[in-house]
C-alpha cells in the first residue's frame, strides 16, 4: 500500500528532474547575471579607501544570521507539531528555502540591484532572499500536509516571482515603508497561501483527521521553532532598516511588542477553554503576533508604549482567530489552513499595515528630527506630506492583497494540474508517502527477536 | 478528575485577569515614563554628529541576542527534563520571562536610568531586563512543578522588584562590581527560590515522586537547554562589561572556565556512581557551573589559569552538591529544590562572589594599567584601595543573601494565600492540570479504529 | 548484566583519573605559558590609543559564537540520530569538545602565537580551538557507538596534537590557504577517523545491527544538528578570513554553495531509492557538503556561479557516497563509518582542496586588485606565481592525507591497548553501558502501580 501511495505522489519521476532543472537554470542565470558587489568583490573593495569596519557585513551579518535561524529552524520546527509529519515539515521547509533563497536572489536582483546588465550581491541580498523565503514558508504553512514537494517547489517558483513584483511596486514605485514586511512578507505570504489552499480544497480531508493533531513530543519540537522565532524577531524587523538609531529602535520596539503579545495570548488561551487549560496551538503561534504587527511600524517612532499596545492587540486578535475564525474559515469559506497562518500572519499582518499607515500619517519633523530623511525620505525631501504617505501605505496594503490573492489563485490552479499527483485524502499529514520512515523502537526489538528466533531454528 | 484538578488550580478564573491586569498596568506606566534614549530616538540620535557604528547597538546587540537565547531556549529547555512537565517548563518559562522583562524595564529604569521623570531605554535596558529575568527563572527552577502559573507570576512581580532594589544597593550604593551577576543574578535567584521553596514545603510530595524523573527523550530536550546555556555563557558575562578589552577578556575567561567545569563534572559524575555510569542530571547542570563562578570576576584580570581553576572547582562543588547535599537539603532542611538550583546557582554563585572579592583585593595599577578606571573606577579615582573594594564585594554578597532570603520568605507566604490554588501533592510535575495535552499516538490510532468500527456498525 | 558491561568499559576506574589528569596538566601548562594578548589584557589594550571598535572582538565574536553553536549543538545533535545512543552522542561530543578546545589552545598556541616563551590568546585563539575541535568531532563520527569515552579522550589528545602539526606545516611552512579548513579540518578529521575505524574493525558488529538505525524522534533531534550546521556554515568559513570584503565574500559564497548542495541532495535521494522516497540520512548529511567544499576556496574570487557549481557537485558526490560507496567501504575495505564522515567530510573535503588549488592557480592581479595581498600575500609580494601557489595547495592536501592516515593508524593501535576496554560487539550504539538511563514512561507507571499494590497489601 505504501508503495502505491508513494507512486501516486510521483516523487521519483518528478522531484529529481525538477530539482535538477531549477538548479541548472539558476546556475546558468547566475553565471550570466550575478556578480559580487563593491563590498564582497576583492578588487572593488580595495579600490576605495575605507576602514574594514565600514563594510556592511559588520552592520548586518549578525542580524542576518538570526533571520537565517528563523527561516530554517524557526519555521521548520514550528511546523513539526503534526504527529506524523515531522520529516516533511522540517525537510520540505529545508528544500523550499534552499531553492527560494537562490531564486529570489535573481528575482529581487532584477528588480533592485540590476546595473549595467548585472546583479550585484552582498549581505543585503542574503537578507532580502531570506525575507522572500519567509513569505513562501508562510504559504507553505497553509497547505502543510496536503501538497507534494513537487507542488511546493512550483508554488515557490511562482510565489518568489510575484513577491518580487509586489515588493518592487510597494517599495520602489509607491515609496511605501515596510522594513519588517507586515505587508510584503506576512500579508502577502498568508493570503497567497490561503487562496491557494482554497483552490485546493478537499471535502474529504476528514479521512486524515486522526493525523492532524499533535503528540506530546511533537509539540515540544514545535516549541523549538516558536521560541527561536520569538527571540530573533527583533533581528528580523531590524535587519534591513537604516543603520544606527534605525536598527536599534526597531529591535527595541519588536522586543516589547512580543512581550505584550505573549501575555495577552496566555490570558486569552486560558480564558477561552472550557476548563481553563492552556492550548499549545495558541502559545506556539499567537504569542508571535507581536512580531508581525510591528513589521511596518517597528522602525518608526511608535514609542515603547505604542509597541506594547500593538503587541497586546495582536496577541488577542490572533488567539481569537484560532479559536473562533479558523473553524468558520473551513466550514463556510472552504479554506483549510493547517497552521492557522491567517491568525498568525494574515490578520496581524493587515493590522500591522494599518498601524504603519497610521504612524506614517502622524510623522512630523519634530518627532524624527534629521532622522526623518532616513525613515521617510519622501516626506523629508518635500515630495509628500505625512497624510499622503499614509495613503500610499494603505494603497500598498491593497496592492498586496490583490496580488497575493491573484497569485494564490493562479498557483492553486497550477497545482491542480492532473500530472502533479497530490497525496490522497486519506494520506495527508503522513511522512510515510515521501520518506523512508524508520520502524519504531518496539517494532525493531520485536523484529530483532524474531530474527534471533529464526537463527536459532536454523 | 482532570476537570476537578484544573478547577483546583483556578487557571481560568485567575490567570486571565492577572495577565490582563499586569499587562495593562505596564502599558500605562510605559506611556507615562518610558522613552527612547539618545541612541534609539530618531531626533536625539541625529542631533549629534557621530558615525552610525558608534551606536551601542553594534557593541552589544549580538551579545544580547545570545543572552536572549539563553533565557528563552536555555532555561526553558533545561527544565523540560521532567517526563510530564515539558509544556509547563517551556511554556511558563516563556510567560514569566515575557512578563519579567517588561516589568524589570520599569523597575530597573526607576533605579538606573530615571532622568527628569522619564526612563530612557536602549539595548542596555534589554540586556538588564533579560538578566533580571534570569534570576526569576533560577527561582522558578527551585519550585518547578509545584506552583501554578498564577503563583509564579506573583513571585515574578515580587522578585523583579527586589532584584532591582538589591542591584541598586550593590552597583550604585556600594560600588560593587558584578557584571555577570554571580551575586545579583545567581546567588539572589537561587536563595530567593530556595527560601520560597522552603516555605512551600510539601511533606507528601512523594505522591508525585513517580513523575519527578526524566524519560529518555525529555533528557535530550533538556540537553538543548544545557548546551545553549553553555555556548552562550561567554556572551552573558560579557554583554554588560566595558567595551573593548573588557568584553573580550570576559568572554575569554568564561569560555575556559566552562571547559574546565565540564571536565571536572564528567570526572566526578562517573566517580560517584556505584557502577561508574554518568548521570544526566550532573551533565545537564553542573557542567554549567563554570559560567556562574566567573560571573563577578570574569571582567577582571583573573588570568586564563585562574579561569580554569575557578571552573574546575565549580564543577566539582556543583556535582558534589547534586550527589550529597541535595538529599540532605530535603530531608533535614525541608527544601525541595526540583532543579537543584542550589548546586548550579547557589553555591557556585557564592563561590563566584568570593572569588570576585579576592581578585578585586589583588587589583593593582600595574596589572590593569589605564584600564583600571574601566574595571575599578573607584580604585582608579583614589576613592578606595583594593582591599576596601574587596570588603565592599563581600558586603554585597551579604546584602544579597539577606535580601534574597527575606524576599523568598515573603514570597512564600504570599504564595500560600489560600485563594492561590496550588497543584495538589498528587498532581505535581503534571502538565495535564494546566494544558490541553494531546493523546499519545497509540491512543489516537486506537480511537480512530474504534470510530471506524462504529461507522461500520452504523 | 548491565553492571558487567559497565565494568567492562572501565568507566569508573579510568574516566575520572584521566579527566583529572588532563585538566590538571592543562591548568599547570596554562599557568606557565598562557597570557592575555594585547586585545584582552587590560594594561596592554589601554596602553595604545585606539577606538574600542578596533578590537578584534567586534569583527569576529559574532562569527565565533556561530561556530561555537555548530561545534556543540550542530555536531552534537547531528549524531543523536541513533535510537539508543543520544546521551552518548550529545554527552561525549560535549566532553571531547570541552577537552579539545583547551588542549588545542596550547598546541596551536605553541605553533602560532608563541612569543618570548608565552602564548597570547584572544578571540582568534577561541575560533582556532573550536576549529580544531571540529576535526576531532568528525573523527568521532567515524567511530561513534564503538568506542568508550576513555578511548575517545585519548584519541582527542593525539588528534589535536597532530592537527596542530599539520596546520602548522600547511599554513606556516607551505603558505597554503585554507580558511574554512577543507583540508586541515574536513579532510584531516575524516581520514584520521576512517583509518582509526579501520584499525578498530569489528567483524561481529552485526550483533548490534538492530541498534544502528534511527527512530522517528531521533531523526528529528538529528535535524536540529543538521540545520544549525547548515545555517551557520557561512560563519564557520568566514570566521578566520580577512576582515572587510574577505569575511563578507566567504559568507556569501558558502551561503549559495549550501543552497545548491541541498537541492542536488534532495534530487539524488529521491532518484536513488527504489520507491522514490527521500532518505533522512542523505538530507541530514549530504545537504551540508556545500559548506565543506568551499572551505578552501570560499575566501577566493570563485564567483557566485562557482559557489553554486561547487555545492551542486558536492551534494551529488556526497549522496552517491552514502548510497554506493559506504557499503563497499565496509565490505571490501573493512571501514565501519558510523556517520558516513567519508561522504560528508572526506570526499567533499578533498574536492574542496582541489577546487582551492584550481582557483588559486587562476588568481590574477586583475581579479583581486589590491586585495591580492590579503588573499594570496605570497603571490602579491612576488614570492610565488599563481601556478606555484596551486602546486603548494595540492602538496598541502597530500601532506594532510599522509599525516591524517598515519595519525589515525597510530591512534587506532593506541586505542586497541587491552587496558582500554571498548564496548563489546553486542553493546555498541547503546547508552546503557555508560549512562544512568531512565526507565521509559510506561515502565515507570507500571512500577508505580506495583509499588502502590505493595503498599496496599502491606
TrEMBL record, chains A, B, C:
Name recorded for this polypeptide: Ammonium transporter Rh type B
Lineage: Eukaryota, Metazoa, Chordata, Craniata, Vertebrata
Topology of the protein relative to the lipid bilayer: Multi-pass membrane protein
Membrane-spanning residues: 20-38, 58-82, 94-114, 126-145, 152-171, 183-201, 213-233, 253-272, 305-325, 345-364, 394-415
Domain Ammonium transporter AmtB-like, chain residue ranges per copy: 26-416
Stored SUPFAM superfamilies: Ammonium transporter
Main localization (coarse): membrane
Catalysed conversion reaction: NH4(+)(in) = NH4(+)(out); methylamine(out) = methylamine(in); CO2(out) = CO2(in)
Molecular-function GO term, any one: ankyrin binding
Keyword presence, Transmembrane helix: yes
Function recorded in the entry: Ammonium transporter involved in the maintenance of acid-base homeostasis. Transports ammonium and its related derivative methylammonium across the basolateral plasma membrane of epithelial cells likely contributing to renal transepithelial ammonia transport and ammonia metabolism. May transport either NH4(+) or NH3 ammonia species predominantly mediating an electrogenic NH4(+) transport. May act as a CO2 channel providing for renal acid secretion.
Subunit and partners: Interacts (via C-terminus) with ANK2 and ANK3; required for targeting to the basolateral membrane.
Amino acid at each position: 500500500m505504501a508503495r502505491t501511495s508513494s507512486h501516486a505522489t510521483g516523487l521519483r519521476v518528478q522531484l529529481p528532474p525538477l530539482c535538477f532543472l531549477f538548479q541548472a537554470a539558476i546556475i546558468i542565470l547566475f553565471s550570466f547575471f550575478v556578480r559580487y558587489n563593491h563590498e564582497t568583490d576583492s578588487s572593488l573593495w580595495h579600490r576605495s579607501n575605507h576602514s574594514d569596519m565600514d563594510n556592511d557585513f559588520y552592520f548586518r551579518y549578525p542580524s542576518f544570521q538570526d533571520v537565517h535561524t528563523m527561516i530554517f529552524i524557526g519555521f521548520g520546527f514550528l511546523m513539526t507539531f503534526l504527529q506524523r509529519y515531522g520529516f516533511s515539515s522540517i525537510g520540505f521547509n529545508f528544500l523550499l528555502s534552499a531553492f527560494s533563497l537562490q531564486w529570489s536572489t535573481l528575482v529581487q536582483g532584477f528588480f533592485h540591484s540590476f546595473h549595467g546588465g548585472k546583479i550585484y550581491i552582498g549581505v543585503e541580498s542574503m537578507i532580502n532572499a531570506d525575507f522572500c523565503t519567509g513569505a513562501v514558508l508562510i504559504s507553505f504553512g497553509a497547505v502543510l500536509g496536503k501538497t507534494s514537494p513537487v507542488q511546493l517547489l512550483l508554488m515557490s517558483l511562482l510565489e518568489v516571482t510575484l513577491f518580487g513584483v509586489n515588493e518592487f511596486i510597494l517599495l520602489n514605485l509607491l515609496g511605501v515603508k515596510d522594513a519588517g514586511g507586515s505587508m510584503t512578507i506576512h500579508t502577502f505570504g498568508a493570503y497567497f497561501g490561503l487562496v491557494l489552499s482554497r483552490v485546493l480544497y478537499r471535502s474529504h480531508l476528514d479521512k486524515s483527521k486522526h493525523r492532524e493533531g499533535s503528540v506530546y513530543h511533537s509539540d515540544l519540537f514545535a516549541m523549538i521553532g516558536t521560541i527561536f522565532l520569538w527571540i530573533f524577531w527583533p533581528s528580523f524587523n531590524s535587519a534591513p532598516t537604516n543603520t544606527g538609531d534605525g536598527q536599534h529602535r526597531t529591535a527595541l520596539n519588536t522586543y516589547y511588542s512580543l512581550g505584550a503579545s505573549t501575555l495577552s495570548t496566555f490570558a486569552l488561551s486560558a480564558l477561552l477553554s472550557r476548563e481553563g487549560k492552556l492550548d499549545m496551538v495558541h502559545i506556539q503561534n499567537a504569542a508571535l503576533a507581536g512580531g508581525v504587527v510591528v513589521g511596518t511600524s517597528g522602525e518608526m517612532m511608535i514609542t515603547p508604549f505604542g509597541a506594547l499596545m500593538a503587541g497586546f492587540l495582536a496577541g488577542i486578535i490572533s488567539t481569537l482567530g484560532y479559536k473562533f475564525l479558523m473553524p468558520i474559515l473551513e466550514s463556510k469559506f472552504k479554506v483549510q489552513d493547517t497552521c492557522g497562518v491567517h491568525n498568525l500572519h494574515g490578520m496581524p499582518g493587515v493590522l500591522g499595515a494599518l498601524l504603519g499607515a497610521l504612524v506614517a500619517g502622524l510623522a512630523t519633523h519634530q518627532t524624527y528630527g534629521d532622522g526623518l530623511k532616513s525613515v521617510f525620505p519622501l516626506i523629508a525631501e518635500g515630495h509628500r506630506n505625512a497624510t499622503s504617505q499614509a495613503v500610499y501605505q494603505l494603497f500598498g496594503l491593497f496592492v498586496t492583497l490583490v496580488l497575493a490573492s491573484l497569485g494564490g489563485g493562479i498557483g492553486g490552479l497550477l497545482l491542480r494540474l492532473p500530472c502533479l499527483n497530490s497525496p490522497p485524502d486519506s494520506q495527508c499529514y503522513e511522512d510515510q508517502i515521501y520518506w523512508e520512515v524508520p520502524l519504531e523502537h518496539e517494532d525493531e526489538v520485536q523484529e530483532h527477536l524474531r530474527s534471533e528466533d529464526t537463527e536459532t531454528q536454523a
